[in-house]
Amino acid sequence: MEFNKVILDFAGESGNVAVLTFNHPEVLNAVGADMLEGLDAALREVQDPNNGARCLLITGAGRGFCAGANLADPKRGKGAGASLRTAYHPMLLALRDLDMPIVTAVNGAAAGVGMSFAILGDIVCASKSAFFLQAFARIGLVPDGGASFMLPRLVGWGRAMELSLLAERLPAEKAAQWGLVNRVFEDNAALMDGALAIATQLGDGPKSLALIRRLYWATWHNAYEQQLDLEARLQAEAGRTQDHAEGIKAFFAKRDPRFAGK
Length: 262
Fold this sequence. Notes:
By secondary structure, this protein is α/β, with parallel strands linked by helices. 45% of the residues lie in helices and 16% in strands. Helix 1 packs parallel to helix 2. The chain is globular. 40% of the residues are buried.
């Protein structure tokens, strides 16, 4: 499916991996008003249960993942923060609340809000040539796209401040050492093969994977007692799924489970 500056395909043996590709390679997939419109439409398709997606894989066309906001976009508003509340925030919240795992395949520059999209992945994959950049200070702005929330929690206060204040490139291998990236691949071809293999494994997984996402996101605002209560409630929900019953049957039959995502 082609949308405005975005492509959406369905991959995996069962077609249950939604592959969303930023598709404006002429500007390293920098985000403009048209792409935001395309992303919104594509995400609605991913969320549509009729399409059968059970994992989302996000990557970029060409040499870059996403170079941040398109500063040359003729439709760009005059106020730097105006589009954040109306366009970016609903999309970022929809990705946070997505009822399936997210894998990101970072195939080049992930700068500005592009870095925010990249680190929203539950599993972040990158090629060795990829890099991450909090570019905001270079143009007199502050981090956005949730970066000021995510980075201190992923890499620690000192490293988050370093990335944001100095606005220096963070190469993929160093990002992996810092815990920002899960898997690093030799080149972009290996990256897509590896990321798709991970996404396929998750897409074939049980319904509880979506509950695991919900559980871990909740840890950032819950007290310990609240988290214990949420574990109990989501465990009860997981225990009622068909996938749990299948997992138990497969365990006793000493075979691999065949999960349906239900």
